[in-house]
């Protein structure tokens, strides 16, 4: 059976629309989706790549393209781009990993996704603020107690090691940036795809078509 | 009236692919091809070519192959042995063609260089080959006019290439292919890369993906 894995970091702008589409769009919802939190900064370091915002002209274009993409597919997006960009997502990524270790993959996927919606979709919190992080996690998990447990372990060895392992896995699969998607096709092949722009590759690998003919009817 | 301005340097395979798609699917839209010097854009913006990062270079090769298959873009198998190659001369010849022969024939010469490198596997680094590409594109007489401009007005040609490159940079480019597109209401937008050709299509009122594409069995 086909499945899609997305290596995801909250800091990665285009990972937001990519995950929203993979999570919600009828084209993708019948295919199992695995969300793997990585630390994109680690990917850049390992591969020698530079984050796009380091180049002013690229940064400008990224903003332009981000809003165009979200608008095109009716994905909710914060009215103003974050003033600090890129954000340091170390804690949010560790928190996601911690949720996975404590409460399982499903809860982890939920947390990853909803952290993204709260940050990129609504501009409601600051991922660099631990207080904000705990509040957001509590809200998503529906428990202040659970969030407290998460925050207790995010600085620990187990979480750090798992985040590093996820990050290295993505690089092993060819990642040099995010979002990085790996599709296992129905006949066991592996197809890699980079960026929200490559959802057509993901779709084709699972026997679907992207973009959908009637984009306005999306989501 | 909608129009497309496309900034390219023949060193970029994506530029070739973009141009092919524009000529094939947007043939009714006024098109201005502007030869730039990609090296100059990289230098001015602090950007680097994708293959400066090995994993990115690998992915770009895969991505280009897939895109060509998806859109039935005819292209050479594999990259030139020397890649990237210096294209300063090739770009100057294209600029000179625009000066000597006007926009339309200038476009023809730009196209010819793209096809020469990316379809016909011509080594466009050599002066001799540049001359041959030029003659094939516009014939001996016009080729002569271009070469005259190139050799007698060298400074003007250099200056124009510089101006083209700076125009791209000024409009926000950090790479090629770089589109500046006007829709039928005169609204202008900048669009980067073959990946975003759907936006170009949207602006000029062409269905995307194109209706006529043969649905091949995808072998990814």
Automatic annotation (TrEMBL), chain A:
Keyword tags: Transferase
EC number assigned by the record: 2.5.1.18
A Pfam family: DSBA
Transferase is among the record's keywords: yes
EC main group: transferase
Keyword Transferase attached: yes
Domain DSBA-like thioredoxin: 4-206
Active-site residues annotated for this sequence: 12 (nucleophile)
InterPro entries documented for this protein: DSBA-like_thioredoxin_dom, GST_Kappa/NadH, HCCAis_GSTk, Thioredoxin-like_sf
GO biological process, one term: glutathione metabolic process
Gene Ontology MF term list: glutathione peroxidase activity; glutathione transferase activity
Source organism, top-level taxon: Eukaryota
GO cellular component terms, A-Z: mitochondrion; peroxisome
Catalytic activity: RX + glutathione = an S-substituted glutathione + a halide anion + H(+)
Family the entry assigns: Belongs to the GST superfamily. Kappa family.
The name this protein goes by in its record: Glutathione S-transferase kappa
Automatic annotation (TrEMBL), chain B:
Keywords in alphabetical order: Transferase
Active-site positions on this chain: 12
InterPro entries membership: DSBA-like_thioredoxin_dom, GST_Kappa/NadH, HCCAis_GSTk, Thioredoxin-like_sf
Family indicated by similarity: Belongs to the GST superfamily. Kappa family.
Identification of the protein by name: Glutathione S-transferase kappa
Organism whose genome encodes this protein: Ascodesmis nigricans
Listed GO biological process terms: glutathione metabolic process
Catalyzed chemical reaction(s): RX + glutathione = an S-substituted glutathione + a halide anion + H(+)
GO molecular function, one term: glutathione peroxidase activity
GO CC terms in record: mitochondrion; peroxisome
Record field: transmembrane: none
Gene3D superfamilies on file: Glutaredoxin (3.40.30.10)
Domain DSBA-like thioredoxin: 4-202
This enzyme's EC code(s): 2.5.1.18
């Amino acid at each position: 059976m086909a499945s899609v894995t997305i290596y995801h970091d909250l800091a990665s702008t285009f990972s937001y629309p990519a995950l929203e589409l993979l999570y919600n769009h009828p084209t993708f919802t019948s295919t199992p989706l695995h969300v793997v939190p990585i630390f994109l900064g680690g990917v850049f370091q390992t591969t020698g790549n530079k984050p796009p915002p380091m180049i002013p002209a690229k940064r400008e274009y990224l903003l332009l393209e981000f809003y165009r993409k979200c608008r095109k597919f009716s994905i909710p997006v914060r009215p103003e781009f974050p003033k600090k960009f890129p954000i340091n997502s170390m804690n949010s990524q560790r928190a996601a990993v911690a949720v996975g270790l404590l409460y399982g993959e499903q809860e982890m996927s939920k947390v990853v996704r909803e952290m993204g919606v709260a940050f990129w979709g609504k501009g409601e919190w600051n991922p660099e603020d631990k207080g904000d992080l705990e509040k957001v996690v509590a809200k998503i998990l529906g428990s202040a107690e659970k969030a407290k447990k998460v925050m207790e372990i995010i600085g620990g060895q187990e979480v750090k090691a798992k985040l590093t392992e996820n990050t290295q896995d993505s690089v092993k699969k060819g990642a040099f940036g995010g979002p990085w998607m790996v599709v296992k096709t129905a006949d066991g092949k592996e197809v890699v795809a980079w960026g929200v722009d490559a959802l057509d590759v993901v779709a084709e690998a699972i026997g679907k078509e992207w973009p959908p003919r009637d984009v306005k009817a999306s989501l | 009236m909608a129009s497309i301005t496309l900034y390219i340097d023949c060193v970029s395979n994506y530029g070739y692919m973009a141009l092919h798609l524009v000529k094939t699917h947007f043939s009714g839209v006024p098109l201005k091809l502007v030869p730039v010097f990609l090296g100059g854009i990289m230098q001015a913006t602090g950007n680097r070519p994708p293959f400066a990062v090995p994993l990115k270079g690998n992915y770009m090769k895969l991505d280009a192959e897939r895109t060509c298959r998806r859109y039935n873009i005819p292209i050479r198998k594999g990259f030139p042995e020397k890649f990237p190659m210096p294209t300063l001369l090739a770009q100057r010849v294209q600029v000179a063609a625009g000066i000597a022969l006007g926009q339309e024939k200038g476009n023809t010469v730009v196209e010819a260089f793209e096809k020469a490198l990316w379809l016909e596997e011509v080594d466009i680094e050599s002066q001799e080959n540049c001359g041959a590409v030029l003659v094939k594109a516009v014939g001996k007489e016009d080729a002569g006019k271009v070469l005259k401009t190139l050799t007698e007005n060298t400074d003007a040609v250099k200056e124009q290439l510089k101006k083209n490159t700076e125009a791209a940079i000024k409009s926000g480019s950090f790479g090629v292919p770089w589109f500046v597109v006007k829709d039928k209401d005169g609204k202008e937008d900048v669009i980067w890369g073959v990946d975003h050709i759907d936006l170009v299509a949207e602006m000029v009122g062409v269905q995307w993906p194109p209706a006529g594409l043969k649905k091949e069995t995808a072998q990814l």
